[in-house]
Write a structure and sequence with these properties.
Mean pLDDT of chain B: 94
Number of strands of chain A: 23
CATH superfamily of one domain in chain A: Dimethylsulfoxide Reductase, domain 2
CATH class of one domain in chain A: Alpha Beta
Low-confidence stretches of chain A: 543-559
Radius of gyration of chain B: 20 Å
CATH superfamily of the largest domain in chain B: ADC-like domains
Bound molecules: iron/sulfur cluster
Shape of chain A: globular
Distance between the termini of chain A: 34 Å
Shape of chain B: extended
CATH topology of the largest domain in chain B: N-terminal domain of TfIIb
Distance between the termini of chain B: 44 Å
Oligomer: heterotrimer
Strand content of chain A: 15-25%
Chains: A alpha/beta (about 550), B alpha+beta (about 140), C alpha/beta (about 270)
Largest sheet of chain B: 3 strands, antiparallel
C-alpha cells in the first residue's frame, strides 16, 4: 500500500474499492472505512458480488469479471473530458499523459457500459465522486490482480490515482490489500525469483557483488558469485517439476495442492517430483505427497516479525514452546544449511537475523528489535535507526522520478463463457476461513461457522439450470469438476458464479484456469468458464471428519 | 501459577492486527485484543479471536517424517536433515543448482523468508525461490 | 493519574506477601496494556503496573480460579469490574472466598470516556483513589428519546455493519454459557456475512444480558464496527431495575431475578448438554 490504514479513518474523503471483498478479506480495514464514512467520506464499491461493504456503501455497482481495464479507461476518459483531472499534478509529476489520453478517448461511456455492465450514469457518478472528493484512496485486492491482465489492471489503477493527483498525499493512494499476514514481508525479504531482499534485482552486477560479499561464508567456495539468472515462479517451478527439469522442491509452509490454479495439473507435477521436501505445521494436501516432511512451529511458538499491508513491520512473539519435536522454521533452515556445510547460518535468534537483514536491505536499515519493542511497528522505508518510518509513499517524487501514464488497451480474459461452459466462475475468500483452510478449518469456532464449500448462484440462473429446489450442483470446467452445495442469492451478478477456495473436498481450483499474466505470472483465478448442473439431493451438512480434533470444551475463549 | 499475555501479530490476513495470547502455566488459554494498537484498536475479526485455536490441534506434526517403502514414517531430525542435505547436494552436483526450487512463505516470518532465500541463493545457488504472493 | 498509580503500586506491594498473586494490569511492548498476575516473589514487575485502558479482568480471575480453585488471590478492580466479579460469583463463575478486592476509583475523564453511572467500587475494603459521582450517558439518553420508528431505523443501520466477530460476546465477562445461542443455527445463520437477519444476533444477546450486564462497556470498545452496544444493555438494565428492583453488582446477597434455585432433591438432566 502506498498509504496507511489509520489514514483511512483520519484523512480519506473518498474510497474506490474494487475487486476486494473487504469485510471478509480484511475485516478491520473495512471497519476503518466505515468510520470514515460515518464522518462523511464517500464509499464507492465495484465488484461482481454485492458483499457486505456493498450493502452500506454510498455507491455500489456490479460489473462483469475481467472487464476492469475497460472500466478504468472509461472512468479516466470521463474525468479528462469533464475537466476534473489534476492539471498541476499531471504537469509536475507525470509523463506520457497524452498517449494515455488518446487511448482512453476510445472508451466513451456507452461502450464501457456495454463492456462492463455498469450503466452510463453509474460511470459518471463514480468518476465524478472519485475525482472531486480528495483525498481519495483506491483499495483493491486479488480481484484486480488475479487475471491474465493483472498487470494491466494495476497500471490502470495507477493511472486513475495519478490523473486525480491522489498520490503522495495522506489518505489517498493506491492500496493493494495483501491477503496473507506476511505476503508483504515475504516479498520484501526477497522471496521472489528476480530480486534480493529490498527488491534489489538479481540482474544488477553491483547487487550480485554486494550479496556475494556479504554471504561469502555461505557460498560453496568463497569466490563463487551468486546467480544473476532470474529464477522461476511457483507456477513455473511446479510445471518444471512435472517435466523433470526441476528435480527437487523444498516447500516451506505453502500448500500449492489447494492454492494453485488447476490442481489436477499441480498434483500430476508434484507426484512426478523426484524429491519433495515440505515443511509445515500440518500434513497438508501437499505434505502428503512429500518425501520428507519437517515439522515447523506455529506463530505462537516462535519469535520474528511480520510486515502487514501498510508496510508495517511488527513483532511476532513466542508465547509457548513448540509442540512435540517441532522446530521454528528459522532454526530448521539454519540447521539444514549447516548440514550442507554452509557457514553464515549460525544465528542465535531471529533478532540476530533481523540485524543482518537491516544491514543488507536499505528500506529495513533502521528496523531493530529494540525499536520495535519501544515503538510497536515501523513502516518501511525506514533507512536509519533515527528514521520514524514512512506512513505514505511518493511524497514529493516517485521512486522512478516522474509517474508514467500507461495507455492500456483492453483485453478479454483468457477464457470466456460459451455454449458448453456458459457461466463465469470467480473465486475468493469468506470471513470464516483463511487461504487453504489448514489452520482455520482446524479451529472449532471457525469450522462450525462454515464447514462446506458452496456455489453462489443468482435466482434467474437457478431457474435457467432447472435447480428446482435441489441443493446440490455439479460444476465443471475444461479442467475438472466438483460437486457442492448451492446458495441461491441475489448478491451475485446473473451469469457469474462464485466458489470460496478454502475447501479441499470441493476445491475451486480444480476448475480454475492456469492461464497466467505474461509479466506477473499470476494465474487467472478470478475468471474462467464453467457449466453448472443441478443434482438431485439435499444439502450436505457437517464437515470432514479429519478436521475435528480440537478439544471439546465449548467455552468461548478456551478453544 | 503463572498468567500473562503475549502481544503478537495476527497470523491471518494482511491487515496486521495485534492480539494478546493469554498464557496460563505455559498453555494458551485464549486471545484478548490489544487496546490502543494503531491498526486493530482493541478489536479483532472472528479469525483473530480464534487465532490460538489450531495451535494444539491433534493433527499438528510433531516429528520429521521420511518416506520409506511408499509411506511417511517418523524419523529423527538428524536423519531427516542428513537425507535432505545429501539429496540436495547430489542433485545439485548432477543437474546444477537450477534443478532445485525453493518456496518461501507468506505465512512465515520475515526472518524465515530471509533465511530461506539466502539458503536458495547462496547455499544452493539458484534464484528459483518464490512464494504464493500471487495466489 | 500518576499519584493513583503510585498509591496502587504501594497497596499491591503490601498485599503481595499475603497472597499467591494479584491480578492487575501491566504495560507491555509499545505501551500496550494487558492483564497480568503479579506474584509475591517478583515485586519488581510492579514497575510496569498500569491503570488504563481498563481490561476485562473479571475474566482473568475466572481463568486463574478455574485452574487454581484454592489460590489466595487479590484483584484490582474498578466499579464495573467489581460488579462483574459479584455477578459472576452469583452465577458460580468465580469464588469470593480467598479473594481480596482492591477497589480502584475512576477519575472524571475515565468516567466520561465510559459514560459511566457508577465509576466507583462499593464492596472492596481496600481502595485506591477517591470515589467520584457518576456521569450521564448522552448516547443512551439521546437514543431513549427517539420514537419507536427512529429506534428501529437506528439499530437497523447499526447492525448491518456487524462483522460477526463475536467480540462483544467473547470479551464480556458476563457471557459464560457453555452452549451459546448465538452459535446455534436455529437462531442465527452460521457462515454468512452480512448476517441475513442481523438484529437477531443482537436481540438475543441483549435478552441474555438481562440482569447480568454490569455496564463495563467492554463489548462496545471491542466492536470493530463501532456499534454503540452499551445503549441497549443499559436500557435493559434500566427496565430490570424498574421491574425487578435488581441492580447488578449492588448487593452480594440479592439473588438475580432470572436465577431459579432448585430445592434439594433428585433431578434428571435433560435437553442441553
Ligand atoms: S484479526 Fe482479522 S482483520 Fe485483523 S489481521 Fe487477523 S484476520 Fe485480519
Ligand atoms: S457492558 Fe457489554 S461487556 Fe460489559 S457486561 Fe454489559 S454486555 Fe457485557
Ligand atoms: S463486536 Fe460488533 S461486529 Fe463483532 S459481533 Fe459484536 S456487534 Fe458484531
Amino acid at each position: 500500500m502506498t498509504n496507511s490504514i489509520p489514514e483511512f479513518e483520519t484523512d480519506s474523503n473518498c474510497f474506490l474499492i474494487i475487486g476486494s471483498n473487504t469485510s471478509e478479506g480484511h475485516p478491520l480495514i473495512a471497519t476503518r472505512v466505515l468510520r470514515a464514512k460515518q464522518r462523511g467520506a464517500k464509499v464507492i464499491v465495484l465488484d461482481p458480488r454485492k458483499n457486505q461493504i456493498g450493502h452500506w456503501a454510498d455507491v455500489f455497482y456490479t460489473f462483469r469479471p475481467g472487464s476492469d481495464v475497460a472500466l478504468f479507461n472509461g472512468l479516466l476518459n470521463i474525468i479528462i473530458t469533464e475537466g476534473l483531472a489534476d492539471q498541476a499534478f499531471i504537469a509536475e509529476r507525470t509523463e506520457n499523459f497524452e498517449e494515455m489520453k488518446a487511448l482512453v478517448a476510445e472508451f466513451p461511456a456507452e461502450r464501457v457500459a456495454d463492456l462492463t455492465g455498469v450503466p452510463v450514469e453509474g460511470l459518471y457518478t463514480v468518476a465524478r465522486l472519485y475525482a472531486t472528493q480528495k483525498p481519495a484512496a483506491i483499495l483493491y485486492a486479488m480481484g484486480i490482480t488475479q487475471h491474465t491482465t493483472g498487470v494491466d489492471n494495476v497500471k490502470s489503477v495507477a493511472n486513475l490515482a495519478m490523473l486525480t493527483g491522489n498520490l503522495g498525499i495522506p489518505g489517498g493512494g493506491v492500496n493493494p490489500l495483501r491477503g496473507q499476514n506476511n505476503v508483504q514481508g515475504s516479498c520484501d525479504m526477497g522471496g521472489l525469483p528476480n530480486v534480493f531482499p529490498g527488491y534489489q534485482p538479481v540482474t544488477n552486477p553491483e547487487t550480485i557483488a554486494k550479496f556475494s560479499k556479504a554471504w561469502s561464508s555461505s557460498l560453496p567456495t568463497p569466490n563463487s558469485p551468486l546467480s544473476n539468472k532470474i529464477g522461476l515462479t511457483v507456477t513455473e517451478m511446479i510445471s518444471a517439476a512435472g517435466e523433470g527439469k526441476i528435480r527437487a522442491l523444498y516447500v516451506m509452509a505453502e500448500n500449492p495442492m489447494l492454492s494453485e490454479a488447476d490442481i489436477n495439473h499441480t498434483r500430476h507435477c508434484l507426484e512426478k517430483t523426484e524429491f519433495l521436501i515440505v515443511q509445515d505445521i500440518f500434513l497438508t494436501e501437499t505434505a502428503q505427497l512429500a518425501h520428507v516432511v519437517l515439522p515447523g512451529a506455529s506463530f505462537a511458538e516462535k519469535d520474528g516479525t511480520f510486515t502487514n499491508s501498510d508496510r508495517r513491520v511488527q513483532r511476532v512473539r513466542r508465547a509457548v514452546r513448540p509442540v512435540g519435536d517441532s522446530w521454528p522454521d528459522w532454526e530448521i533452515i539454519c540447521h539444514l544449511a549447516g548440514k550442507m556445510g554452509a557457514g553464515g547460518f549460525d544465528f542465535v535468534s531471529p533478532q540476530a537475523v533481523m540485524a543482518e537483514v537491516a544491514q543488507l536491505t536499505p528500506s529495513y536499515g533502521g528496523i531493530t528489535y529494540e525499536r520495535l519493542e519501544e515503538l510497536g511497528g515501523l513502516q518501511w522505508p525506514c533507512p536509519t535507526t533515527e528514521h520514524p518510518g514512512t506512513p505514505y509513499l511518493h511524497k514529493n517524487r516517485f521512486s522512478r522520478g516522474l509517474g508514467h501514464f500507461f495507455a492500456v488497451p483492453f483485453k478479454e480474459p483468457a477464457e470466456l463463457p460459451d455454449q458448453d461452459y456458459p457461466f463465469t466462475l470467480t473465486t475468493g475468500r469468506i470471513m470464516f476461513h483463511y487461504h487453504t483452510g489448514t489452520m482455520t478449518r482446524r479451529s472449532k469456532k471457525l469450522d462450525s461457522e462454515a464447514r462446506q464449500a458452496y456455489l453462489e448462484l443468482h435466482p434467474d440462473d437457478a431457474q435457467k439450470i432447472g435447480l428446482n429446489g435441489s441443493r446440490r450442483v455439479r460444476v465443471s470446467s475444461r479442467r475438472g469438476q466438483i460437486e457442492l452445495n448451492v446458495r441461491v442469492t441475489e448478491r451475485i451478478k446473473p451469469g457469474v458464479v462464485f466458489i470460496p477456495f478454502h475447501f479441499a473436498e470441493a476445491a475451486a481450483n480444480v476448475l480454475t484456469n492456469l492461464a497466467i499474466d505474461p509479466i506477473a505470472k499470476i494465474p487467472e483465478f478470478k475468471v474462467c468458464a464453467v457449466r453448472v448442473e443441478a443434482l438431485s439431493g439435499t444439502e450436505h451438512r457437517g464437515g470432514t471428519d479429519h478436521r475435528s480434533g480440537e478439544s471439546e470444551r465449548r467455552t468461548r475463549r478456551d478453544e | 501459577m503463572e498468567y500473562h499475555n503475549v502481544l503478537t501479530t495476527c497470523p491471518y490476513c494482511g491487515t496486521g492486527c495485534a492480539l494478546h495470547l493469554q498464557v496460563l502455566d505455559h498453555q494458551l488459554v485464549g486471545v484478548l485484543p490489544a487496546k490502543n494498537h494503531p491498526i486493530s484498536q482493541g478489536g479483532l475479526c472472528i479469525k483473530g479471536w480464534n487465532a490460538h485455536a489450531f495451535v494444539n490441534h491433534k493433527d499438528r506434526l510433531q516429528t520429521p517424517l521420511v518416506r520409506k517403502g511408499g509411506k511417511l514414517v517418523t524419523a529423527t531430525w538428524d536423519e531427516a536433515l542428513a537425507l535432505i542435505a545429501e539429496k540436495l547436494s547430489a542433485l545439485k552436483a548432477e543437474s546444477g543448482p537450477d534443478s532445485i526450487g525453493v518456496f518461501a512463505s507468506a505465512k512465515c516470518t520475515n526472518e524465515e523468508n530471509y533465511l530461506i532465500q539466502k539458503f536458495a541463493r547462496a547455499v544452493i545457488g539458484t534464484n528459483n525461490v518464490d512464494h504464493c504472493a500471487r495466489l | 493519574m500518576s499519584e493513583r498509580l503510585t498509591a496502587l503500586r504501594e497497596t499491591i506491594r503490601q498485599i503481595l506477601p499475603q497472597v499467591d498473586g494479584v491480578i492487575g494490569l501491566k504495560t507491555g511492548p509499545a505501551g500496550i496494556v494487558a492483564p497480568y498476575l503479579f506474584k509475591p516473589g517478583h515485586p519488581e514487575m510492579l514497575d510496569s503496573l498500569a491503570l488504563w485502558p481498563k481490561e476485562p479482568v473479571p475474566d482473568t480471575l475466572k481463568i486463574i480460579q478455574k485452574a487454581y480453585p484454592n489460590a489466595r488471590l487479590a484483584i484490582v478492580c474498578r466499579g464495573c469490574e467489581e460488579r462483574g466479579v459479584v455477578e459472576m460469583f452469583k452465577h458460580a463463575q468465580v469464588s469470593l472466598e480467598n479473594l481480596t478486592l482492591i477497589g480502584l476509583q475512576c477519575v472524571q475523564e475515565e468516567a466520561l470516556f465510559c459514560r459511566c453511572a457508577k465509576p466507583y467500587t462499593v464492596h472492596a475494603r481496600v481502595t485506591v483513589g477517591s470515589p467520584i459521582a457518576g456521569v450521564p450517558d448522552p448516547l443512551t439518553e439521546a437514543f431513549a428519546a427517539k420514537s419507536q420508528a427512529e429506534k428501529l431505523a437506528f439499530w437497523k443501520e447499526q447492525f448491518q455493519h456487524c462483522i460477526k466477530c463475536y467480540g462483544c460476546r467473547n470479551i464480556c465477562p458476563q457471557c459464560f454459557c457453555n452452549v451459546c445461542a448465538l452459535e446455534d443455527e436455529k437462531w442465527v445463520e452460521t457462515g454468512r456475512l452480512p448476517l441475513p437477519n442481523p438484529s437477531l444476533y443482537h436481540i438475543i444477546r441483549a435478552m441474555h444480558m438481562t440482569a447480568k450486564c454490569v455496564a463495563c462497556r467492554e463489548c462496545e470498545e471491542t466492536c470493530p464496527a463501532g456499534i454503540p452496544l452499551a445503549i441497549h444493555f443499559r436500557l435493559v438494565a434500566r427496565d430490570v431495575k424498574e421491574m425487578f428492583h435488581y441492580e447488578t453488582g449492588a448487593v452480594i446477597e440479592q439473588k438475580p431475578p432470572q436465577l431459579l434455585t432448585l430445592e434439594e432433591g433428585d433431578y434428571e438432566r435433560s435437553g442441553l448438554p
